[in-house]
């Protein structure tokens, strides 16, 4: 099997939409010899922040000398990003080989696995072959019935729920408490659970209006039921926070002048949860000291999270794709560009609460360039532009991401504005490629 054949097979699995449940992944793993039973996991769920949290933890553990697997979704540019060892994406030939091994087992099932279940099983097999000391395992959606939840209590060192917001309500429930209950399904008998809790990074004017006390009560109750020690991030330990588009410095407890390379005013608060997790892991037998923490935080990279793609004009990409995620990105814009409006390039999924997201974006956007991300659930660009115009902000739809990016960057240069791309991670790869094309063409025209 070639690399392309592996991708074609993975994406051609009999897709019937999201089908929550553990029966298929349990059977597939059993047919593979239960590779997940030979691994140790840190299981990470949450509506927002779980990707950055997972990346930071992986980086710190790697700095400490552990062989670390990292499983995340979705991928940003290449599929291989979804499973990494030691910070490196799975090589093309290895992905092809592991997929060829898993395929006959999946094909032999009467109730075939979903695409995500198949990818999860491939990741487990890959991490087993790589003899990972620990795997940072990010939940796909929810928790209780997510395919990653096939792992057993004895294989889990720590469960983390980064935070709760309103997203995937058709599957997880239409209240924060219901969503919290689903995500709390990752809590295992006797395994400590860490809840990221509420923090002030977004600001008191957030439109998501989540009562984190009631959410914490749900998670605490689930922990008590499972006999699991409940921990919650104490954000008051986070002090001397200074954020810039290039990253942030902060102190946490007795650790002074920490630096994180991830921008966004919300990242120090994610880091506070990570540092709390480190304290718990050390009590679980891990050996993570301040040098590992400093090196791991300073070197962590996570694309599409308030990432600067270009400086002339300034183009920033953020993956915020639900009201709370948009809140966080807008809060960063207000912090870094206090009295300035910006231009916005946006595309969203039609099943998101885009009206709330648009109202929040309009607080900083002077002009909007809308696109339709490459996803069957995506909203039409022209219809999306009309939503912005109804809020009194000039907006125009574009047929392609490239056309929108080039028009937006021309406008930014002419009017000395920054450009924020926001609304869906699914458009990141196309946006990044279009920015690079624009820079190349601009450089060529300057030379000629």
Would you mind describing this structure in some detail?
With 448 residues, this protein is an alpha/beta fold. It folds into 2 domains: 3-299, 3-Layer(aba) Sandwich (UDP-N-acetylmuramoyl-L-alanine:D-glutamate ligase), CATH 3.40.1190; 307-447, Mur ligase, C-terminal domain (Protein-Tyrosine Phosphatase, Chain A, Alpha-Beta Complex), CATH 3.90.190. Helix content is 41%, strand content 17%. It contains 15 helices and 17 strands. The protein has helices at residues 3-11, 23-31, 50-63, 92-107, 115-129, 169-172, 176-183, 212-225, 267-283, 290-299, 323-336, 354-361, 381-390, 401-415, 428-447; strands spanning 41-45, 68-71, 83-85, 88-89, 134-138, 156-161, 193-195, 230-232, 238-244, 247-252, 255-260, 307-311, 314-317, 342-346, 365-370, 394-397, 419-422. The strands form 3 sheets. It has an 8-stranded mixed sheet with strand order 4-3-2-5-1-6-7-8, sandwiched between helices. Strand 10 (247-252) and strand 11 form a beta hairpin. It is globular, with a radius of gyration of 22 Å. The chain starts with a helix and ends with a helix. The relative contact order is 0.11. Residues 202-209 have low confidence and may be disordered.
Summing up helix and strand content along with how strands pair, one would put the structural category as: alpha/beta
Cα-to-Cα separation, first versus last residue: 46 Å
Oligomer: single chain
Report the helical percentage. Answer: 40-55%
Given as residue ranges, the uncertain stretches (5+ residues, pLDDT < 50) are 202-209
How confident is the prediction overall: mean pLDDT? 89
Strand content: 15-25%
Q: Indicate the radius of gyration in whole angstroms.
A: 22 Å
**Count of runs of 4 or more consecutive helical residues:** 15
CATH superfamily of the largest domain: Mur-like, catalytic domain
**CATH architecture annotation of the largest domain:** 3-Layer(aba) Sandwich
**Tally of separate domains:** 2
The third-level CATH topology of the largest domain is: UDP-N-acetylmuramoyl-L-alanine:D-glutamate ligase
The biggest beta sheet is recorded as: 8 strands, mixed
CATH class label of the largest domain: Alpha Beta
Largest sheet, spatial ordering of strands: 4-3-2-5-1-6-7-8
